[in-house]
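User: Structure please.
Assistant: Input sequence and predicted structure:
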Amino acid sequence: MAEGQKDGCLIAGSILIAVGLIVLLVLLILPFKLPDFSISSASVSLINASSSSQLTANWNLTFSVQNRNKMTGIYYDQINASVFYGSDFIAVTSLPPFHQDKHDLTTVQARLAANSMYLGDQVIADINAERSRDAVNFNFKLISWVQFRLIPRRGRKRLLSVFCDDVTIAYANATAFGTLFTTHPRQCQVDL
C-alpha cells in the first residue's frame, strides 16, 4: 500500500472515531424527559364508611404511562400505588415491574383495597358528606425506582414520584359504584 493511501486511511479512521465519540458523548449527556402519567379510568366499589370510623372499599385504576424520550428506554421497579383521602392514608399495593422502549405508551392496572381501615370520625364524616353530594375526591400516589436506559448503558436508579391529586369519583346515587368523573384522562404530576 502506498504511503498516501495509508495516510488517507489513518485520517478517515481518526475522523470516524472522533465522530463516534462525539455522538456517544452527546447521547450520554442528553437530558432525560420525565414520563407522562395519567389516570385513564377509575372505579370504586360501594364505600362502606361506618359509624365505627372504619372504611371498606376497593379501587380499580388504570394509569397510562407515556415515555417521551426519543432515544431512551425506562425501567420501572419496586412500584407502590397508594390512595389517600386528603392527607389520610387509606391503602397501598405493589405493582409488577415493567420496561418502556422509547416513545412507548403503557397501561398499568392497580387494584387497592381497604378492609375496615380505621380513619377516625371526622374523616369518615367528610367522606360520607361528599358521597351524599354524589362525588368523592381521592388522591393517588405512585412511587417507583426507575432507570433511564440508553442501550448498552444503564443509568443509575432514581426515585420517581407520581401525584394524582383531587381525582373526583362520581356516584349516580348512594348505593352505586363510583367512576372517574371525567371522560378525559386525568393528568398527574411527576417528580424525580
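Residues 169 and 180 are 5 Å apart (CA to CA).
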